[in-house]
């Protein structure tokens, strides 16, 4: 058994209070010598008010994480960090001003992943309600990406997101196959899809980008670690 102490890198993570999926997935993807240390901010639903409320106590939560002396802090929620085009800088700046520690947010990691692989035309699949999907499409469009097809399951919040099993995600994504797409984007840090990234890439013949995979990849690369991690798709393996 490997005990994952962060002798190379400690990653602090701010995540929604309801999230039960991101920590197990991120831990499974970690290269040797990297650890994650998480603190939560209140978020269980998907309304505009609930999503923005997650940002109210960023400084307090970031200072708690700072006690672990992380090398970087990740604000990890796709729906919140795609709320508008300016939210990335606002969140990142608040974390760093409060702690002096470099910060990353989920949506900037996704944009970096698409650019690193030269991906522009996407199929997007999410567990979200329609307004969240619409904002996410607008955010991606702002960054020069084209969403050819988008599909949301219309689930109200994180508890419901976690009930969708990997096999169901596989069937849903395959049902929205579009061979004109460059890649498939499976959004949400609370989506149980890490187990199916590679089989989807095989069956679709395209890269598959997920929120947890992209967030970890970007934090590692920003911190100077170029480890290739097998088992979770093209992005982490190159």
CATH class of the largest domain: Alpha Beta
Q: How many beta-strand segments?
A: 8
Give the uncertain stretches in residue-range form.
none
Strand content: 15-25%
Explain the overall architecture:
By secondary structure, the chain is an alpha/beta fold. The protein contains eleven helices and eight strands. The protein has helices spanning 22-29, 48-53, 58-66, 78-81, 87-99, 106-116, 130-142, 158-161, 166-175, 197-204, 211-222; strands at 9-16, 34-41, 72-75, 103-105, 121-126, 146-152, 183-186, 208-210. Strands 2-1-3-4 form a four-stranded parallel β-sheet, sandwiched between helices. α3 (58-66) packs across α5 (87-99) and α6 (106-116) crosses α11. The mean pLDDT is 97.
């Amino acid at each position: 058994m490997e005990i994952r102490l962060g002798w190379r890198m400690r990653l602090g993570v701010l995540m929604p209070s309801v999230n039960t999926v991101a920590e197990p997935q991120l831990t499974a993807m970690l290269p040797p010598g990297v650890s994650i240390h998480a603190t939560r901010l209140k978020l269980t639903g998907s309304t505009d008010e609930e999503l923005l409320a997650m940002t109210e106590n960023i400084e307090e939560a970031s200072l708690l994480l700072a006690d672990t002396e992380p090398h970087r802090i990740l604000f990890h929620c796709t729906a919140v960090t795609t709320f508008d085009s300016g939210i990335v800088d606002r969140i990142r700046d608040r974390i760093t001003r409060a702690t002096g520690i470099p910060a990353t947010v989920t949506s900037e990691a996704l944009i970096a992943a698409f650019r690193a692989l030269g991906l522009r035309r996407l199929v997007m699949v999410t567990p979200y309600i329609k307004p969240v999907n619409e904002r996410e499409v607008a955010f991606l469009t702002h960054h020069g990406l084209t969403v050819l097809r988008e599909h949301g399951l219309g689930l109200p919040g994180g508890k419901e997101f976690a009930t969708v099993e990997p096999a169901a995600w596989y069937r849903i994504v395959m049902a929205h196959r579009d061979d004109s797409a460059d890649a498939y984007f499976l959004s949400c840090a609370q989506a149980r899809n890490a187990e199916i990234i590679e089989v989807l890439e095989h069956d679709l013949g395209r890269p598959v980008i997920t929120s947890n995979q992209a967030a970890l990849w970007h934090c590692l690369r920003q911190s100077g670690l170029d480890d290739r991690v097998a088992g979770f798709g093209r992005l982490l393996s190159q």
